[in-house]
Design a protein that fits this description.
Elements lengths: L1 E6 L4 E8 L2 E9 L1 H5 L6 H22 L17 H15 L4 E7 L3 H17 L3 E6 H7 L18 E6 L4 E8 L9 E8 L5 H11 L6 H9 L24 H11 L4 H6 L1 H27 L3 E5 L6 H14 L3 E2 L4 H4 L4 H12 L19
The structure holds 5'-O-[(R)-(carboxyoxy)(hydroxy)phosphoryl]adenosine and zinc ion (ZN).
Length: 376
């Protein structure tokens, strides 16, 4: 089964091509440069950029998957000429002949950004008479752990129950995963959110702290880089909900405390202590993530641990998770490539493949984006 996957839930325009669960191509056009000066994602800018780029991104995914006889240069990040747009159309036409199923992110995410991907997928499904599946973005992140390369490697297995920590800019959740008896062949997983953030997501907290420190957007990667130079602990930050039995998270108090502790500092003092401040904040966020995840492991005794989402690109967090896995003697899976952590269409195509095996089709005439789609 050949799948074209499309993902436009936030600020990355993504398309991927899969052969069953084998990934043939994965194209990500990041809009960071456009949103940077605003200090965060501006939905209207995201929508316009997705609209301008989506066809070129799909054409690029087909070219890289070798699904097109055309091979010529075109741009993804800026306007193409009419001549180039015609070529892009031809590549898509050629590529679509090989495709059986189109998978698209339905939600959660930014409504007007999601709509670009959903409308493109619907149009292609109708025009080329293809099957359509709607995918939950969070399920995509969770199962990004199972993406295989173009020769079907690696073979990874989840033992049930499994417990996934998903941490990104939009969500922070601990998800218990079980499988329906007998349906395991079709990868029909059952999800239960056992803990989640009551306010900011972990990635969002890192982005906000970076903004306070004048480090730009997105904050997570810059904080990671700067924190590596840290030598001492400067601030005493709170441990949100640490004394409670809840598995929920809260990061807004952490951010507020951070703000109040440095608000009277001069620019020079902040700059001089940048590495230690970045590290203090990052450590507090990660220790909070680990503390509740550990509590969840003790409570649910999972046989496999999974972690996913943009913040998992962070090597310090990955190290902490590996340590926790050793301590709790539970095997841990994390996405194998950096590009599978942050938003991508490969993970959407993989979930799309599982849903297609179960014939869970969406109607190309009526499918609508769902910005608040739940994980069930
Ligand atoms: O999964 P993702 O690409 O998008 C959402 O679905 O939200 O996650 C984006 C988030 C941003 O908050 C970004 O700062 C964070 O992931 N992030 C990182 C790193 N790379 C991206 N956080 C910490 N360290 C990183 N290296
Ligand atoms: Zn995401």
């Amino acid at each position: 089964m050949k799948i074209l996957a499309i993902e436009t839930s936030c600020d990355d325009t993504c398309a991927a091509v899969l052969d069953n669960d084998w990934l043939l191509s994965n194209v990500i056009s990041s809009q960071t440069d456009l949103h940077k000066e605003w200090g965060g994602v501006v939905p209207d800018i995201a929508k316009r950029a997705h609209t301008a780029r989506i066809n070129a991104v799909i054409a690029s995914a087909f070219t890289r998957a070798k699904f097109s006889i055309y091979n010529f240069k075109f741009l993804i990040n800026s306007e193409n000429s009419n001549y180039q747009n015609e070529k892009i159309e031809k590549i898509i036409e050629e590529g679509m002949k090989n495709i059986d199923v189109i998978a698209v992110t339905q939600g959660p995410g930014l409504a007007i950004a999601l709509a670009v991907g959903v409308n493109t997928a619907k149009e292609l499904a109708v025009k080329y008479n293809k099957k359509l599946v709607a995918v939950n973005h969070i399920e995509g992140h969770i199962l990004s752990n199972l993406i295989k390369n173009r020769v079907g490697k690696p073979e990874r297995k989840i033992e049930f129950p499994a417990l996934c920590l998903t941490v990104s800019g939009g969500h922070t959740k601990i998800v218990l995963i079980t499988n329906y008896e007998l349906k395991i062949k079709n990868y029909e997983f059952k999800y239960k959110v056992v803990g989640e953030t009551l306010d900011d997501a972990a990635g969002e907290a890192l982005d906000k702290a970076a903004k306070l420190l004048g480090l730009g957007y997105p904050g997570g990667p810059v904080i990671e880089r700067i924190a590596l130079q840290s030598r001492v602990t400067l601030l005493k930050l709170p441990k949100p909900l640490a004394d409670k039995k809840t598995l929920d998270y809260s990061f807004s108090g952490l951010k507020t405390s951070f703000y109040y502790q440095i608000k009277d500092w001069s620019k020079e003092k902040i700059n001089k202590n940048l590495a230690n401040l970045a590290n203090d904040f990052q450590e507090s966020v990660f220790e909070t993530l680990i503390r509740k995840y550990k509590l969840a492991i003790e409570r649910y005794q999972p046989k496999t641990l999974l972690a996913a989402g943009g913040v998992l690109a962070n090597l310090t967090l990955r190290k902490k998770l590996r340590k926790l896995a050793r301590e709790t003697k539970t095997p841990l899976l994390m996405p194998l490539k950096k590009e599978f952590n942050t938003d991508n269409a490969a993970m959407i195509g993989l979930v799309g493949y599982y849903k297609a095996l179960r014939s869970e089709w969406a109607d190309p005439l009526t499918l609508d984006r769902d910005p608040r789609l739940d994980l069930i």
